[in-house]
Each structure stands twice: as structure tokens, then as C-alpha cells.
């Protein structure tokens, strides 16, 4: 079994302004997270948020000790949110086996031991530091909180499902859910926003292989873009907008950590303010 961990340091906005395409992608784009037989993690210095993928294929994959944290087990002082973007799979933790259908979310609290992934799942992993142990919990789509935002007129009508969210369940820092575009709409998170007190990570999925999402980032008056393929992620620094338009259908998982768990705490930026 292969465990790869890549460290990404935090970037200052003045540095970002001077980056060319390759440098921008090396810092903010996550590729090749979902490889059969591997767990691939990116350890970021944005609130020590970790994202990654586990694809057990026909075998099992165990996530336990990760050298980067210098703790006995990865979740010794962390919490985790797992989303299954593949077919039916299982996650075993603390002697319980959870079956995750596509779109289901599993929360694992601080102090959970080794985590075993199996089945046909493609598991997206998110994790951040925690200060208190909340119970492990499987949250199905039916149990999530659904919000419909936007209008067909502005091509941003979308359905948001909140899973690890104060209205559904408690967590320390982690807030997680996903957004799907409704027929004919292309824009997520438009109007855009920033939240300097919380970082954010996106994973785009459910896309056709040849399709791309035009992901916008950067300070509102100094935007940059990344063309993103299916099952690739983007990290959003606290000073950055995060928004995208798809060439074809897509869903994206958003996950955040920082000073508060208030999903609605956003500083909105109108399209007229973007440059
Ligand atoms: O801070 C919140 C995140 O950026 C996303 O949840 C926003 C989003 O999914 C959307 O508006 O489409
Ligand atoms: Zn946001």
C-alpha cells in the first residue's frame, strides 16, 4: 500500500500576483489524488488543513500514522470528513464499519484510531486540527441540509448540501458539503466572496473527462484562474475568492477550517468589483 504526503506552504498575496501558470498550479492545484491502491494526501499550512484521496480498488487501504503530524495516529489531535465520490465503499474506524454510498459523508472525531478504506469507493479525505472529540457519524444525503441558491437568469442556480455543518452536527473547525449546478447553470459561488478567517478547499468531480472548470482565485481586484479537470482540487487562501464556471456538468465539495463554523460568514464581492 502506498501513502504519499506532499506539504504545501502558505502563499502571500503579493507573491501570488507575480506567479506564472506553472507556479500557480504547483501551489494551488491538487492533481492525481485518486489513484487505485494509494492514499495521496496534501498537508497544507492553511490552518493545517489536509486533503486527499483513497481508492482501495479491490483491496484495503489503512490510514494510521502520518509522519508529518508527529503523532501516534493521524487523528490523535484532528477530526476528519470523508466523502465517497465513487461507488459503494466501506470505512472502518473504532471497530465500526460504515457503508458509504456515492455522496455520503462520514465524520470522524478526534482520537479515532486507524481508518480502513475498502470496496468500490473513491474517498475524498479532509482533515484539520481539533480540540474536542465529537462522535463519529455517517451523514447521508437525506440527512444533509439542502439549500437552493442563485437564478437561471444569472446562470448560477445551484443546490448546496451541507453535511458537516452546525445545523446538522457539531464539529470543532471542519465545515463540509457540496454544491451541484442545476440544468443550464454554470457558475458556482457567484457573486464571489472572501472570508479571511477561514481557508477553503474545493474538489471538482462528476465531470466528463474532456470537460474543464474555469476556477477563479486571487484577490478580488487581482484575479487568476486555473483550468481544472475531474477529481482535481484547488486550495483557497484566506485572501482569495473561490468561484468557478464549468464547461459541462460538475459538482464540487467545499471544505473549510478556521476561526468560526458560520457558513454564512462571507464578505461578498459583486461582479462589478472583480478585476
Ligand atoms: O464559504 C462557502 C463556500 O465558498 C461554498 O460553500 C460556496 C458554494 O458552494 C456556492 O456558493 O456555490
Ligand atoms: Zn467560501
TrEMBL record:
The gene is kduI. Catalyzes the isomerization of 5-dehydro-4-deoxy-D-glucuronate to 3-deoxy-D-glycero-2,5-hexodiulosonate. This is 4-deoxy-L-threo-5-hexosulose-uronate ketol-isomerase. NCBIfam families: PRK00924.1. GO terms for molecular function: 4-deoxy-L-threo-5-hexosulose-uronate ketol-isomerase activity; zinc ion binding. One of its GO terms (biological process) is pectin catabolic process. It catalyses: 5-dehydro-4-deoxy-D-glucuronate = 3-deoxy-D-glycero-2,5-hexodiulosonate. Keywords: Isomerase, Metal-binding, Zinc. Belongs to the KduI family. CDD domains: cupin_KduI_C, cupin_KduI_N. Zn(2+) binds at residues 193, 195, 200, 242. Pathway: Glycan metabolism; pectin degradation; 2-dehydro-3-deoxy-D-gluconate from pectin: step 4/5. The keyword Aminoacyl-tRNA synthetase does not apply. Binds 1 zinc ion per subunit. Its cofactor is Zn(2+). Its EC number is 5.3.1.17. PANTHER family: 4-DEOXY-L-THREO-5-HEXOSULOSE-URONATE KETOL-ISOMERASE.
Amino acid at each position: 500500500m502506498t501513502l504519499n504526503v506532499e506539504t504545501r506552504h502558505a502563499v502571500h498575496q503579493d507573491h501570488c500576483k507575480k506567479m506564472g501558470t506553472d507556479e500557480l498550479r504547483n501551489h494551488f492545484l491538487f492533481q492525481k489524488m485518486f489513484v487505485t491502491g494509494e492514499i495521496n494526501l496534501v498537508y497544507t499550512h492553511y490552518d493545517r488543513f489536509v486533503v486527499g484521496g483513497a481508492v482501495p480498488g479491490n483491496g484495503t487501504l489503512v490510514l494510521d500514522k502520518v509522519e508529518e503530524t508527529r503523532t501516534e495516529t493521524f487523528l490523535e489531535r484532528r477530526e476528519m470528513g470523508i466523502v465517497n465520490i465513487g461507488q459503494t465503499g466501506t470505512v472502518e474506524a473504532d471497530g465500526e464499519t460504515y457503508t458509504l454510498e456515492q455522496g455520503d459523508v462520514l465524520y470522524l472525531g478526534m482520537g479515532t484510531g486507524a481508518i480502513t478504506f475498502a470496496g468500490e469507493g473513491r474517498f475524498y479525505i479532509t482533515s484539520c486540527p481539533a480540540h474536542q472529540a465529537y462522535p463519529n457519524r455517517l451523514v447521508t444525503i437525506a440527512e444533509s441540509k439542502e439549500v437552493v441558491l442563485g437564478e437561471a437568469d444569472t446562470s448560477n442556480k445551484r443546490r448546496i448540501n451541507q453535511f458537516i455543518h452546525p445545523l446538522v452536527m457539531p464539529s470543532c473547525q471542519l465545515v463540509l458539503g457540496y454544491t451541484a449546478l442545476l440544468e443550464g447553470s454554470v457558475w458556482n459561488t457567484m457573486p464571489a466572496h472572501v472570508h479571511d478567517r477561514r481557508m477553503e478547499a474545493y474538489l471538482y468531480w462528476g465531470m466528463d473527462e474532456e470537460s474543464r472548470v474555469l476556477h477563479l482565485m486571487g484577490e478580488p481586484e487581482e484575479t487568476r484562474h486555473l483550468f481544472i479537470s475531474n477529481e482535481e482540487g484547488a486550495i483557497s487562501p484566506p485572501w482569495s475568492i473561490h468561484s468557478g464556471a464549468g464547461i459541462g456538468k460538475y459538482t464540487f465539495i467545499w471544505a473549510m477550517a478556521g476561526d468560526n463554523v458560520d457558513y454564512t460568514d462571507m464578505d461578498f464581492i459583486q461582479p462589478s468589483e472583480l478585476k
